[in-house]
């Protein structure tokens, strides 16, 4: 069942969303060559605590950390580690979820580490295209539309830019749980699926590969990497459907 949230609930989701935004902002600003992804985990952990929130990730199906930090060919669910040291020209996806007063927020961003000057042009294009596909998906989160409109908009943007959408992981409803119905694939058909209604809250999250769409999960049971070693980007927002259109809860 897809839950429609009341105005009071949306205000609580907004508070959680802004916590996530500030955590990601702090972590993104901390990113620099020589830091490990564990250092970023510590920044995120402190930022969550200082805002009186709790991690939605740590302990979720046994995930050990508050942050997913996925470097280069890692698609999602990278586990922060001291031995994973960032270097100039890496890209790192930062994904964070929190719960505050029983309501969840979830967002992700991908940033370049250090000096971007020497980076292949394709890397900048990958980040821009992934962000644009998220914006296109969010634009479709309006009452009267269909969930397939979001999926189709994301896919169309990504493929027009020459990149591939990951099939194995999807966006999701969010509210009093991290993952609720419906699932929101990043590929699909306009006009397909359920009607979008006012009060729905959706985490829309394109995962986009530089080369092929294929992914595999490493032996740690979490880290998803591209099958062909190409880079991957991930952007996510938690979005409420209002009568006036999409309200991005994880963006001020
Ligand atoms: Mg997320
Ligand atoms: Mg999510």
What do you see in this structure?
The protein is of the alpha+beta class. Helices cover 28% and strands 26% of the residues. It has four helices and 15 strands. It has a five-stranded antiparallel sheet. Helix 1 (7-30) packs antiparallel against helix 2. The chain is globular and about 45 Å long. The model has no long low-confidence stretch (mean pLDDT 97). The site of one magnesium ion has 5 residues, from loops.
Give me a quick take on this structure.
The protein has 252 residues and is α+β, with helices and mostly antiparallel strands.
List the helices and strands and how they pair.
Blueprint: H1 7-30, H2 37-50, E1 54-55, E2 67-71, E3 74-76, E4 91-100, E5 103-112, H3 121-139, H4 147-160, E6 164-165, E7 171-173, E8 180-184, E9 201-204, E10 207-209, E11 215-217, E12 224-226, E13 232-234, E14 237-242, E15 245-248
Antiparallel strand pairs: 1-4, 2-4, 3-12, 4-5, 6-10, 7-8, 7-9, 9-14, 10-13, 11-12, 14-15
Helix pairs in contact: 1-2, 3-4
The structure holds magnesium ion (MG) (2 copies).
